[in-house]
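Researcher: Please generate the 3D structure of the following complex. Treat every line as part of one assembly.
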Amino acid sequence: MFDWIETNPGRLYVVATLLPLTSFAVLLACGGLRGLCRPFRRDSGLASSVYWLCGGDRPLKTGAWFATGMMAAAAAIAVSGLVLFLQDSGKPLQHGHAGGKWAERMDWVRIGSANSAPPKEWEQRTANEPDRVVPQTALALELGYKIDHLTAALFAMVTVIGTGIFLFSLGYMKDETQETVPDHEVDKQTPPRPHDEHHGAHHGQSPPTAVGGLEGGHHDHFARRGRYGRFFLYLSFFCFSMLNLLIADNLFQVFVSWELVGVCSFFLIGFYYERPSASRAANKAFIVNRVGDAGFLVGIMLAWSFLGTLNFEEMNQRVRSPQKDTHGRLDFADQIVRVNPDPDRFPDEDPGFRLPPQEQKGTGTHVALYPLAWEDPTHYHGLGYGKHQDRGYTVPAKPTLTDFGAMPYWLFIVMGIGIFLGCVGKSAQVPLQTWLPDAMEGPTPVSALIHAATMVAAGVYLVGRAFPLFAPEVLLVIAYIGAITLFVSATIALVQTDIKRVLAYSTCSQLGYMMLALGVGGWVAGLMHLITHAFFKALLFLGSGSVIHGCHHEQNLRKMGGLFSKMKITAITMLVGVLAICGAPLLSGWYSKDAIIAQTLGFGLFQKDFGHPEHVILFILPLLTAAMTGFYMFRLWFLAFAGKPRDEHVHEHAHESPWIMTLPLIVLAVFSIGVAWGWPVWNAEKSYLGDVLFQAEPHSVHVDFHGELHEAHEHHEMAGLFALVAAALGVGLAAIMYWKPKIDPSAIRNTLGGPYRFFLNKWYVDEAYDAVFVKPTVKLAFVAAAADKRPTDAPPPPGEAELPPRKFDTLTLDGMLNGFGQFAALIGGELRGLQTGRLRSYILALALTVVAMLAILSALN
Amino acid sequence: MTHLGLEPFLALSAFLFACGVVCVATKRNAIGILMGVELILNAANVNFIAFARYNPAFRLEGEVFALMVIVLAAAEAAVALAIILNFYNNHATVDVDKADELKG
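Model: Done. Output below.
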């Protein structure tokens, strides 16, 4: 076991990934067995013993602790793995690979054999060019892992936060351990139904009274079985999927985990699925994500068909020009080289392929695809051709289209946009942002885990991972989408009154920051913000969970107030989170947010000098939003904890949460303060986390964004000052509105009624989608249903009028299907005459047939 | 003994086979049909033996097959007679034209 890990320490991560899967499998097996045995628990000895062994009537409590333990073990492995990896990868600030010890890959599904025949046209080529290696056309989908600094850091982040959230959930979901859980939300949301006394014990069809045979006498209140075990089952599976997503070394594995993460989020958002709002929200999240995933699939298929591989490293290698070049022709390393494979313009080149002179690189219609150097000739994935020598790669003296391959530039852009569209869905960016706030219907720990720390981070992570695949145009799209998202979401967050919705919109907004940073070349800044944000947003969500728990499921900020004295730990830890998200100096958010603002400023300044002054908006929007962030976060905190209690009832019953819930808060608060520290602490540019991430940065970032990065570095302090002043203004405004009220918020509400309503209704995006997409779809469905109202020609049910004959259906579908049947019946009717029952005629037919067949045979010969 | 060659045997076999088929096709009596079937089977037997004799490589196979066909014929006759007896019990006739209750 230890040898096995010592040879490839990366396998630590595989083990850590599989731990949550184990707890998922155990919980699933237990729950499944129990469910199977449940109907027989009173009859059969075996069934009842299995039933009681798997937990009996009460929800699985031990299982929850088991899952938490597994998660904690995964976190321990991840942290030790991070330490090992950092030791192994040598000195910081040094580019380079950590070696093959941290990456492995294997075939998952192989399409074609390993040594299938080369394509036909290849045979003509090898004759006069003997030094080319015959390509293997076999292609494979792979499983693999690759640990780099980004993966290691994110893996540790996810497992640590995950453990905290598991612990928190042990306390927060306490209600679910009961055998029957009343759910008042369901009663509130379902319209009161006529009380059917006649049906006696039966409740008729309308809302389910209980899950699985709890025949309670609750005529008025909805109650169900507790789902403690199921909650942890979903959480474990979610963690497994997320971790698998992080260690995956190829796009397909990412896609698989991507979908698993999506389906887990569907389950968890719809955890209280008896509430119509929860099931609606779950459906919405799933469907909106499908839109993004459609684009993602298009991107994957384009990559597969043009690049011939889905491995991240190999894709980068194919798209970006190689660093070393023996012929001196390709020395703009790590750039996307555009070429014109046009036989008319360059007749003297071998079949019409021409590597461009330097000035031509921005105008070509195709992207040059470089061949892969591969170590094992039997394991070749690419479509590029070449000679393998000493693990290096020799570029043929006369490059041709077949040596290099080319991809139309517009398809390259489509591929990038497609992959990014998947990220838009997952990370809730405009225009697919509508699902995230609705996803707050799930239990609060879920909001913390999925909608703050991990799943929504997947989109940003993928943009970072696939960064070299994005053309400059795509990056600009990413930047603008991010900028729009962060602004729009922040404006909505200003006016929300539900504590979780404020946080949800703030999450959208912060994700927008990350996307923006990545789009303008701040690779490190964006991903660092991803990690710091994960910590403080998880803290904020768990804090809000603690508040909600303490206030007995009251989520309305207007009914809170003055809770500071009642729940000190929650209030203080949340204050830390609020300060961190606002970018208060020395807290983790400060380092990452400053870096982002500086990067946008650098981008704006650089672009201004080179002819695109309009990009300065990418600096102004996040700056405005920084002020709004300060405002809405402190508004939340003041409304909840400061001032006088606005609702005596809520205030009286409020209480601090048990230690199992406050402990994760404290741990996360510590991380929120110090996770980005470096030395010296007061220098915003010196962050150890940033240094770690910097080592994973793709080289192409420096090539593409050389000038911007330089400008950002030059103006870092100025940008930081801007951001700080902006945030302080926002905080100050929040203070005089909600803490020491000098300005009455309702007065502002009245004077600015238009924008207020606009923001309160989320820019009417939901309404617009409803009108443009949902309503027409539903209408179409109704039309289709009406056309098919009576699928058979049966007489109408009693009391209904006879419908006019349906010409359309009888002519098309119905007619066709009936036609088949009638045709068969007709043939049968004709043929039945032949079956006379007279033996002699059969024999005659047989004999004559044989004679006829013999005659045909002899005639043929 | 003069060497006859293959053809006379094949001719005999074909003749027997034709007789059998005609017998089966024309008789109304079930017993008669059964006799026709026996003729057909024996035609096949003659073929087997003739080929076995003609080509020494198939000697063993041909003779074994012929034995097999004889055994099969015996079994088939037993079964067929049983069916005919049953039919007679139910319908008091062995006329196959009356056995048409399963026709379409």
